[in-house]
Every structure is written in structure tokens, then in C-alpha cells.
Write a structure and sequence with these properties.
about 400 residues, mainly alpha, about 55% helix
Amino acid sequence: MSGQETQYEEHLRAVLRAAQDRDYAGYSKFDALNSPLLRILSLNNRWLRLAYTQAVKACPFNIRPHIGVRQSRNPKGIALFARAYLFLHEKTGDRQLLDEAETLIRWLLDNPSPGRNNLCWGYNFIWQNTIFLQDMYEPNLVVTVFAGEALIHAYRTSRREEYLECARSVARFILDDLPVLHENEDERAVAYVVRKVDAVVLNNNALAGAFLIKLWKETGDESLRSTAQKLLSYTVNRRTDYYAWYYTHPKEKSPITHDNYHTGGILDALLDYYEESGDDRFMNIYRHGLAFYREHLFDKNGAPRWMNDKRYPHDIHGAAQGIITFTKASRHVEAYREQATTIAEWARNTLYRPETHDYAYRKGRFMTWNYSLMRWCNAWMARALGELLTVK
């Protein structure tokens, strides 16, 4: 193991220990409406809910403890931490790491969204965005996919059939329970939530396709492969002529344009499809999209840009996503590993807090949001460092 790899492993272990000491519980970026005070002051008005959510998210200090928001486990964060342990177990062979991963996965299986026929999960907060309102733990596609990815990863590591059967249940949620917003012979788009909505979140559609192709690889169920291809085709076909994606289709439904971490998620999904299936139909688009991602969404020193046309704030989630995306890319073009390590070094030198072994939220032009969010900051960086350690 190289000296740099040793440093990354020690760093990852420190982040994981600190998270474990906190029971993997913390605050979340969009949890403002978990405040009883803000729920009352929102007057059941969509725009007030949205305003409070955005204000707390953007606050340069952590106001949440002062307005009654409690720390709790985020199911998506638990899935990310589980995968970090699985990656580290693969690197070291340490059985205790696998045991901790399985403990977290057991928590997910014991705490799905209630009242559903199939396994699914939602966020641990009430969430108002521009497209929908979600209740606490109401299921959605993205949290469910991340839990499903953890199940597939755990199955491949442990070969426990229970995890594969649970992943099948996740697939049934995606295939049967989410409203279909668009479908033809070649494309399929599903809603982010179980409610009917008027926009497709493009990265989520791609993430669902990547999960289904992994499940196909383990089961041989051709319907999964067919649906995965259609889900990815929908997202691919809504790229710009310069190989970027808006957050939603139609693009007017969200103020997010070409941002960092959603772009990286789409690229990862396209590469996953190729690696799992051997089908290279999306790879030319992937390569062009990866070039756009590298050129327009990162500074030369590794700092993640907020969007292609907005440099600040540098968000830790963007750094984590960049590490993951370029690490995956380096399996095919070795030079991309340098980009991944450049981003990892920027994150450690800029936002890591050695006294608490966690990561600060973001850095602006003139100030730093010097507080940590368990899922947004630490679970994502743990997942990213785990991926980085797996590349030879």
C-alpha cells in the first residue's frame, strides 16, 4: 500500500469512528421543517415552507439546534456509510468492518417507509422543494435506490441471499409503485415520489437504471435490463448539445441548471450500465459528458464548482461526488485517478475538521459554513474515500 493510500485509509477510519460515536445521527441540509416553530410559522403555505427551508439551508451558522430541529439518522446516509464500510472491508479484509456494514443494513431493513408493499425509504425530514412536499419518511426514488445499491453491494460481498431478495423488493417499488410520467418503446421516466408530479428529476431516473442493471447482473431477469436501458435512455436523450443535463425536465421546473453532484451521478449511472452489461451504447455520451464535468464543474486545484456558471460555494458533496466519478472513470482511463486525488486533497485541506474528524458543509468566496451535516458531508465523503481506496 502506498503512503497516500495509507493516509486515505487512516483518514476514512477516523471519519467512520467519529460518525459511529454519534450513532450516525445528525442534521440534514433540508430539515428546516422538522422545527415545530417553523411548521407553525409556515401557515401551511407552500412558499413559506420553501422560503424557510432555503433560509436554513443557506444560513452560515447552524441555526437548527436553536429552532428545535433534532438530530437523527438519515436512511440515505446510513446506506452511504454502509458502502464505505464495505469498500474498506474489501480493501483490508477486516471482518469487523463487514459486521458494521451489515449492522447498518439491518437498520435499514428494520426501518423502511411504513405502510408500503415493497421495500422503500424516505428522508428523515419534512421536505418542501419546487416540485413537491414530502412528509417525514415518505418514500422516494433516490433514497430507495441508495439503500438498494447498499443491498447489492452487501450481497456481492457476503453472498447472503436475504440481501438479494430485499433488492428485488426495491426493484418492485421502482417498477410498480412510482407513477410513470413518460413511456414509449425506447424510454421510461418515473416520478421522484409516489405522488403525481409534473417534472422528471433526470439524475434519479439514471440512478434507478443503474440499480436495475446491477440487479439484472445478479438475477438474469431480462425485464430489469430492458427497463434500465429505457430509464437511462430517457435521461441521455434530454442532454444538451454540449453534453450536460439540467436537474429536471422540463428545465423550468427547477432553478438548478448544470450542477456538480447531479451531473456526476448521471455519469456514474452510464458507466455502471456499461460495466454491468457490456453494452457500450451510452459510452460516447459518457465520455463527452465526463469532459464537460471535468472542465466546467471543477477548478484546477480540485475545488468543486457549484454550477457550470457559478463557482461558489464550494460544497463538500460536490467534492465527494467528484472523487467517486473520477475514481470510477480511472478504471478505464488511469489519468483520471489524479483528478480524484486532487479533489480529495482539496477537501481534506479545505473542509476537513481534525478536532472532530468530520467535514464542514461548504466554503464561499468570503466565508466558510463551518458546521457539519452527517449525511451531506460525512457519509458522502466516507463513501467517496472508500471508492478511492478500491482502485489499484
